[in-house]
Amino acid sequence: xxxIPMTLPTAADRAAPAPEPPSHFIRxxxxxxxxxxxxxxxxxxxxxxxxxxxxxxxxxxxxxxxxGIAAEFGGRTHLRYDDxxxxxxxxxxxxxxxxxxxxxxxxxxxLRHASDYFEAxxxxxxxxxxxxxxxxxxxxADEVRAARGTLTEPGRDSPWRDRKVAENLDLFARMRAGxxxxxxxxxRARIDMAAANINLRDPAIYRIRRLAHPRTGEAWCIxxxxxxxxxxxxxxxxxxHSLCTLEFEDHRPLYDWFLDRLDIENDPxxxxxxxxxxLWLPPSRPEQIEFAxxxxxxxxxxxxxxxxxxxxxxxxxxxxxxxxTLAGFRRRGYTPxxxxxxxxxxxxxxxxxxxxxxxxxNALRDDLNRRAPRRMAVLRPxxxxxxxxxxxxxxxxxxxxxxxDETLGSREIPFGRELYIERDDFDIDPPKGFHRLKPGxxxxxxxxxxxxxxxxxxxxxxxxxxxxxxxxxxxxxxxxGAARKVKGTIHWVSARHAIDAEIRLYDRLFTVxxxxxxxxxxxxxxxxxxxxxTLAGAKLEPALAAAAGGEALQFERQGYFTPxxxxxxxxxxxxxxxxxxxxxxxxAG
Length: 589
Ligand code: ATP
Ligand code: MG
Hints:
Blueprint: H1 11-14, H2 25-36, E1 44-47, H3 57-72, E2 76-81, H4 91-104, E3 110-113, H5 118-130, E4 134-137, H6 141-146, H7 165-177, E5 186-189, E6 204-208, E7 222-224, H8 226-237, E8 241-245, H9 252-262, H10 268-276, E9 287-291, H11 303-311, H12 326-332, H13 336-346, H14 357-371, E10 374-375, E11 377-378, E12 381-386, E13 394-400, E14 410-416, E15 418-422, E16 442-445, E17 450-458, E18 464-472, E19 489-490, E20 492-494, E21 499-506, E22 532-540, E23 553-555, E24 559-563, E25 573-578, H15 584-588
Parallel strand pairs: 1-2, 2-3, 8-9, 10-23, 12-18, 16-19, 21-25
Antiparallel strand pairs: 4-5, 5-6, 6-7, 11-22, 12-15, 13-14, 15-20, 16-17, 17-18, 21-22, 23-24, 24-25
Helix pairs in contact: 5-10, 8-9, 13-14
Bound molecules: adenosine-5'-triphosphate (ATP) and magnesium ion (MG).
């Protein structure tokens, strides 16, 4: 398909001055901190994805929050890959994450990897050992688990808990040097095996794992655990507000414990490796603040489950338009503006909730209703012959691209003796109140004439093959005579000029609102077999040949569509991003 670039006005161009986004508790905290001069009045946030899958719309909530709050207070945001687990991380995910962030319009000031900090993290571990705050433990993973206790019972001390500092230093150095097999020893924080918060019961800080790392290769056979690496990485980068989802609330005491013991701001030894690597930034004492994650109904927002859908072939890849991944939404025809408006609408709180999918769909409708050019496309065509329209004649009709916005211009639509209309817009034996085309009835063709159905011609299979109609030349839209009114208006395309296209209609990926709610059932049992309907024989008005990838259009009466990347020269494929109105509730109810 030839791509004629067409710049859509952005939301900012056409909206009145943007209203203040609704406030929330994190903005209050940050405003208070800035006013009090905490962290020198600075705001530095980070978005810390693990590169083990594509980003989904839950990540967008975190992205808009982190980038938005820093921008609002004149601060900066880092992109940091949380790549401490080499087992699952891949370059293709890193590429995808950067594409998605760029699409959302978010640019980071600094790009970092937790693995940039391996040497400095190692120094932090040494400091804990020297202070008597960490020890090498020889228990196996199973033994550690058995000694951990429960919510009601304290844990038991490891027999290795009181090792001397010198012995711990020696053993830890030998762990690093590769002297011990995987899993045979761990370095553990020495906190409190009786702590009410199980996360504080001497958690592991390092484990032995002989795995090549995508960035550090074979340099390490010990890897730091997330809870240890995360807060320290925040401090190394000068992060002031470390925003994360509620499941980390119980980890905050541990986050604080490491930072209190290490006092990174005042110990230049710890960050010396960062100076050597050119990665040094003034360190901070960050604070972790938790907010409720985004949950959406009729889908799953977890990389593990999304991985299962992709790897099991249940969808056609990470950018399948039915997935809640940002790549899926982009391909389907969602706009970053709609995702941003959605995230602002749902807000930030500590209250867990599930947002109905319609809220997201309505955000897209609102955005595209304002700025998508209108087109006519017939998805399930039925041929109409205007028997009194002269053979060989045709004309062009000029039609506005948008009913409310003349800056979007107009285009020419060819009209002729043979047309296509939507099959559903004709009924040979219609119910009462049917205002579209019926035998002997009249209907207006959008932007054109009133026609009257004279005869329905049956095909060999008994179905209706075509309609023979007459037209009223005086009723052309825009002419004085056009004032004549009929009840129905339908869309159409000229048969001779139509472009053949494939149309993909999407529905909910699951048939139930909470597919993963029942732990005893496989969420994949609830996949909706009708989540994709492909219409091979659609007919489009010629202007749609110029539609460019990423462009959103309203097909009148049908919804918002965008060209898919499967389009080829002469055979476009269009995805329906969303219908014009919400039909799901009616169908289900
Ligand atoms: P998942 O549960 O999908 O595997 P994750 O938390 O493991 O997600 P990360 O790559 O670690 O994925 O997430 C990066 C950031 O995005 C984290 O700060 C995380 O809290 C945030 N995030 C992930 N999922 C959501 C969500 N549903 N709502 C809001 N923020 C989220
Ligand atoms: Mg995570």
